[in-house]
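Hi C.,

You asked whether I'd gotten around to modeling the 280-residue construct. I have! Everything is below, sequence then structure, no commentary in between.
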Amino acid sequence: MPSILLLTLLALPLTYFLNSLWCLRRNIAAAKASGLPYVVLPWSNLNRPWLLSSPFILPYLNKLPIRDALWFRLLSVDWPWRTQYSAFHELACDNFLLVSPARIFFNTADAAVIDQITTRRNDFPKPVEVYGSLDLYGKNVVTTEGSLWKHHRKTVSPPFNEKNNRMVWIESLRQAQSMVKAWMADRPESSPTLLTVAEDCMRLSLYVISCAGFGVRVDWSGVEENQREQSLANGHVSSNTEKDAKKTEGSGDHEMSYVDALQNLLHNMIWILVFPTGLL
């Protein structure tokens, strides 16, 4: 019995490896048939185990000679941000394919191609299977296509008008200015390095959503009282400091404020997206 169990445990990774190798060869053949330049990846940069482990593994892999290889740089899920146009420049083209065992991704820096893709929705449907993890609260405008997408779009489109766009723009500017002021106020003279940029940008998004979506304006700690009064005079929303906004409401059955609930969700979003709901 132990030997059978051991053989099974050894067979599972071997089967996975052989299946991945077969899928990779199939996708490479399809990429060759397209006539477009392509780069082969050993696994998809959207592979869930890779997404979880890459922040810990990449610092060590970056010390190896492979760090300069194009395929290695494209393994990062945010490679368009990190490499920008350099990948296209190295391949001397504006269109290329990323080939992995899981799928083939088409990448373009050609404005005419982008225009064709975005205006011909029926000819270029998005791969909804990639967005499956975003079905956190059910199907939505991001995770659907076809007639179901049209239904969701009709439902969510009314708030996206010029009046609300103006509110979001003004509030985004105000929150960004407040964030910078908070940085300057809290920064020690001997340590000018900011270590909370990612967290603060998440809070900025949260506060903009709070104002535009729920009519509750949240101010950063350290924002002057006269600035709060002036911002209230220019809009029709209530205003709270961070401390006030995080207080638990006295009425109802809520145990968290809106700010605390959404902030907690955003901090733990990666685990919700990666692991099935039954495991959480």
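If it helps when you're writing up: The beta strands are 38-40, 95-99, 104-108, 216-219, 238-241.

Thanks,
B.
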